[in-house]
UniProtKB/TrEMBL annotation, chain A:
<dbReference type="Pfam" id="PF09637">
    <property type="entry name" value="Med18"/>
</dbReference>
<dbReference type="GO" id="GO:0006357">
    <property type="term" value="P:regulation of transcription by RNA polymerase II"/>
</dbReference>
<comment type="subunit">
    <text>Component of the Mediator complex.</text>
</comment>
<keyword id="KW-0539">Nucleus</keyword>
<comment type="function">
    <text>Component of the Mediator complex, a coactivator involved in the regulated transcription of nearly all RNA polymerase II-dependent genes. Mediator functions as a bridge to convey information from gene-specific regulatory proteins to the basal RNA polymerase II transcription machinery. Mediator is recruited to promoters by direct interactions with regulatory proteins and serves as a scaffold for the assembly of a functional preinitiation complex with RNA polymerase II and the general transcription factors.</text>
</comment>
<dbReference type="InterPro" id="IPR019095">
    <property type="entry name" value="Mediator_Med18"/>
</dbReference>
<keyword id="KW-0804">Transcription</keyword>
<keyword id="KW-0805">Transcription regulation</keyword>
<dbReference type="GO" id="GO:0016592">
    <property type="term" value="C:mediator complex"/>
</dbReference>
From TrEMBL, chain B:
<comment type="similarity">
    <text>Belongs to the Mediator complex subunit 17 family.</text>
</comment>
<dbReference type="InterPro" id="IPR019313">
    <property type="entry name" value="Mediator_Med17"/>
</dbReference>
<dbReference type="GO" id="GO:0006357">
    <property type="term" value="P:regulation of transcription by RNA polymerase II"/>
</dbReference>
<protein>
    <recommendedName>
        <fullName>Cofactor required for Sp1 transcriptional activation subunit 6</fullName>
    </recommendedName>
</protein>
<feature type="compositionally biased region" description="Basic and acidic residues">
    <location>
        <begin position="62"/>
        <end position="73"/>
    </location>
</feature>
<comment type="function">
    <text>Component of the Mediator complex, a coactivator involved in the regulated transcription of nearly all RNA polymerase II-dependent genes. Mediator functions as a bridge to convey information from gene-specific regulatory proteins to the basal RNA polymerase II transcription machinery. Mediator is recruited to promoters by direct interactions with regulatory proteins and serves as a scaffold for the assembly of a functional preinitiation complex with RNA polymerase II and the general transcription factors.</text>
</comment>
<keyword id="KW-0805">Transcription regulation</keyword>
<dbReference type="GO" id="GO:0070847">
    <property type="term" value="C:core mediator complex"/>
</dbReference>
<feature type="region of interest" description="Disordered">
    <location>
        <begin position="50"/>
        <end position="82"/>
    </location>
</feature>
Length: 209, 620
């Protein structure tokens, strides 16, 4: 029996070409209540959703300089949910007038054997952290307010230490490539959150030190 | 005088009134006496007011004069009291002052009494026309000046008043706008963009995915402008016929407490929902493949749930907003709305919205994209196509509403069939008990076929009809289950056959009560003419002493046939035969004769049968 045909061309279309539009900001702990209150009013009318996630960041160091980064995330509050594997590409250097950070995004749901699989593939875990907070939704926009905590003992998610006295606020939208009108909606939404929190595009490449 | 008996003395006053007339029967009419005011007037006329005494004028002036005192003194002396002229020089002064005081007191009393107007009134006394005549021009000018000053004062006061009222109104208007805005904000979503106040009346925050933005703008000073801000900036109010709505004009038509803007905004929201429903329905009508394709024409979706039945869903957009459902046979009747289906459409749309917002969609872990929780498992659990298909919702809005329409139509047609049979056929009677608790896709009715007056005896035919979307399932009392299609004729034929069976069953039950013996019974006889609807049934019963027998054959089409078998001894035309020698054989039953059932007395079949049985049972 011969092997099934393997396509030589890279796979395009479908979920491969999704772009993530991202705006980030932060608020102090004291301002959290008012921010949640405001988001509850602005976003879709649902019960507020809390989450606790554990994220592991895997690196594959090749011969080239830039390592290949994959993020594996699982939910601690819903242990039966599948793992989520994410690849985030380089931010697109389009016109400066675009209000949000745009980067290629590949999302894959995976079973619970994901960490072993990545280890077998050659990835090494770089760091891990626990994020917990609240999730909101407005149409296609997702707003996540999360508190990041550092894991002191690798693998032990109970023993965590808060990284900062503030909460990270992220506004992101997943859209197929080519749709640019989402950034305007995101910007108008971000305007409504001022002056509680200033959401802006933060280029991760400029964060390296 | 003491000792004498007391004498009664009566005193009578003299008749004071003058007799005016004495009537013929002796009654006297008196001249009515003068009343007080009349009396006073008569006396006052005697007084000459023009001839005022000099002392009065001097009293008014307040300065006594010597030469007048001599006149006064003799007047006083002529009065009742005579006294010596006083020795001291101030006596006359004293007297004058005293008289002046008296005069003043009297004047004061008179004026106070006159002021009350109860006991005295002032009447004008004719004056000399030679009173001082000031020139008329002077009078006119003086009057004009005084009026002018009065008018000035009044105008100044009015001006101040109007200014304060205007200010008050302005303040109130300001406050009114804010309070109205507050009330608006408590019910609708508003946000401030720049210097404009925009509102959102779409269902997007409730889970709708309709791309319409549904914004409206709130303007100050009596206007709420309901615009749609399209991308090209033109103001096109295609959400119904909404112009500017005055915020403060409250026409008496609206109910108490409802603002006009509230009504308009609600109407616009309804329009938006109806548009969304129609867009969803038309999208499904085009995409979904069905046996009979749905036709989508501009504002109408036409489909044929049953052959001969047309369902049209149209979006009617006028000053009001309506959506029509017309389930019509060949000729459409425009007034035939199916409000139930319209309501169900709205409800299903809202359910769809709610599903979008359910927490099942929220991702755990948080970085995953939105989507149904179970679909996310499809990858890791390696679902195949069948499993994925079963997860997804495979019935759209259009299919659901067509199913509901089919059910409603089938149910109404079933009811109509049963009712028409019940009104057409009196014997036996058909009763339908509809169940109160129904589903959108299923209803049930219990049909009883009885004879009037014999309900307790003949209750063998009881049918439970479960009306579904396309079929009717009939469960008989004896356990048989029959599935009928949506054809009206099938149900009617079935009920007719059951009615004919009931008659025969009734005879069987009656026989038990009357003491007759059932010799044979068949629900479906194979003899006699073939019925086009169902089968004929027959029963034969024998009298208690065995002499008579009644045979009944009843068919849905052929009607009933009743034969009575007489004993041999009663028949006249019995052929003489040598075979039968013994006389006892004459007690057997012989030939049968048909009964003219239509000429039989009795209001229904069972009653007639009872009379027949009673007639054939001889009294002991």
């Amino acid at each position: 029996m011969e092997a099934p045909p393997v396509t030589v061309m890279p796979v395009t279309g479908g979920t491969i070409n999704m772009m993530e539009y991202l705006l980030q900001g932060s608020v102090y702990d004291q301002a959290l209540e008012s921010l949640l209150h405001r988001l509850r009013g602005l976003c879709d009318n649902m019960e507020p959703e809390t989450f606790t996630d554990h994220e592991l960041v895997y690196l594959l160091k090749g011969q080239q300089g830039n390592p290949f980064i994959l993020r594996a995330r699982r939910s601690l509050s819903h242990p039966t949910s599948p793992w989520h594997l994410r690849y985030l590409g380089q931010p697109e250097v389009g016109d400066k007038s675009r209000h949000a950070l745009v980067r290629n995004c590949v999302d894959v749901a995976a079973s619970h054997s994901l960490p072993e699989f990545l280890n077998e593939m050659g990835f090494r875990m770089d760091h891990e952290f626990v994020a917990n907070g609240h999730m909101f939704r407005k149409g296609a926009m997702k707003i996540v307010v999360s508190k990041l905590s550092r894991i002191l003992v690798p693998g032990n998610t109970e023993n965590t230490e808060r990284l900062s006295l503030s909460y990270l606020v992220e506004l992101n939208v997943l859209a197929p490539a080519g749709q640019d009108n989402m950034s305007d909606d995101m910007r108008s939404f971000a305007e409504q959150l001022k002056p509680l929190v200033h959401l802006e595009k933060i280029d991760p490449s400029k964060q390296r030190h | 005088m003491s000792g004498c008996p007391a004498v009664r003395v009566s005193i009578e006053s003299t008749c004071e009134k003058q007799v005016q007339e004495v009537a013929l029967d002796g009654t006297e009419t008196y001249v009515p006496p003068l009343s007080m005011s009349q009396n006073l007037a008569k006396l006052a006329q005697r007084i000459d007011f023009s001839q005022g005494s000099d002392s009065e004028e001097e009293v008014i002036e307040g300065e006594p004069r010597d030469r007048e005192w001599t006149k006064q003194e003799p007047e006083e002396e002529e009065g009742t009291v005579k006294f010596q002229p006083s020795l001291w020089p101030w006596d006359s002064v004293r007297n004058n002052l005293r008289s002046a005081l008296t005069e003043m007191c009297v004047l004061h009393d008179v004026l106070s009494v006159v002021k009350e107007k109860k006991y005295m009134a002032l009447d004008p006394v004719s004056q000399d026309l030679t009173a001082s005549k000031t020139p008329q021009v002077f009078q006119l000018i003086s009057k004009k000046k005084s009026l002018g000053t009065a008018a000035q004062l009044l105008l100044k006061g009015a001006e101040k008043l109007s200014k304060s009222v205007a200010e008050n109104q302005e303040n109130r208007r300001q406050r009114d706008f804010n309070s109205e805005l507050l009330r608006l904000r408590s019910q609708w979503k508003l946000r401030k963009v720049g210097d404009k106040i925009l509102g959102d009346l779409s269902y997007r925050s409730a889970g709708s995915l309709f791309p319409h933005h549904g914004t409206f703008e709130v303007l100050k000073n009596t206007d709420i402008d309901l615009d749609k801000n399209d991308l090209d900036g033109s103001i096109s109010p295609d959400i119904g016929d909404l112009g500017t709505v005055a915020l403060f004009r409250r026409p008496p038509k609206t109910k108490a407490g409802t603002q006009q803007w509230h009504v308009k905004l609600e109407a616009a929201q309804n329009v938006l929902l109806c548009k969304e429903i129609f867009a969803q329905l038309s999208r499904e009508a085009v995409q979904i493949k069905s046996q009979i394709p749905h036709i989508v024409v501009k504002n109408q979706i036409i489909s044929q749930p049953f052959p001969g039945l047309q369902l049209s869903i149209s979006l009617c957009h006028s000053t009001g907003e309506k959506k029509n459902h017309r389930a019509s046979p060949e000729k459409p009747k425009p007034d035939d709305h199916l409000y139930v289906l319209e309501h169900n459409l709205h409800q299903m749309m809202r359910e769809f919205h709610k599903q979008q917002l359910s927490s099942v969609v929220m991702p755990h872990p948080a970085s995953a994209p939105f989507g149904h929780k179970r679909m996310r498992l499809a990858g890791p659990m390696a679902y195949d196509k069948a499993e994925i298909f079963s997860l997804q919702q495979n019935e759209g809005l259009l299919e659901k509403i067509i199913k509901q329409a089919k059910h409603i139509f089938l149910r109404s047609r079933t009811a109509r069939t049963i009712d028409s049979l019940a009104s057409r056929i009196e014997d036996p009677q058909i009763q339908a008990h509809w169940s109160n608790i129904n589903d959108v896709y299923e209803s049930s009715v219990k049909v009883l076929i009885t004879s009037q007056g014999y309900e307790q005896i003949c209750k063998s035919i009881q049918l439970q009809l479960n009306i579904g979307v396309e079929q009717i399932r009939v469960v008989h009392r004896d356990g048989r289950v029959v599935t009928l299609s949506h054809q009206e004729q099938e149900l009617q034929d079935f009920l007719l056959s059951q009615m004919s069976q009931h008659q025969v069953h009734a005879v069987q039950q009656l026989a038990k009560v009357m003491g007759w013996h059932v010799l044979s019974f068949s629900n479906h006889v194979g003899l006699g003419p073939v019925e086009s609807i169902g089968n004929a049934s027959a029963v034969t019963v024998a009298s208690p002493n065995g002499e008579y027998a009644i045979s009944v054959r009843n068919g849905p089409e052929s009607g009933c046939k009743v034969l009575v078998q007489f004993p041999r001894s009663q028949t006249k035309e019995l052929p003489k035969s040598d075979v039968i020698q013994d006389a006892k054989w004459s007690h057997l039953r012989g030939p049968s004769k048909e009964v003219h059932w239509s000429r039989m007395e009795g209001r229904n079949f069972v009653y007639k049968m009872e009379l027949l049985m009673a007639a054939l049972t001889p009294c002991p």
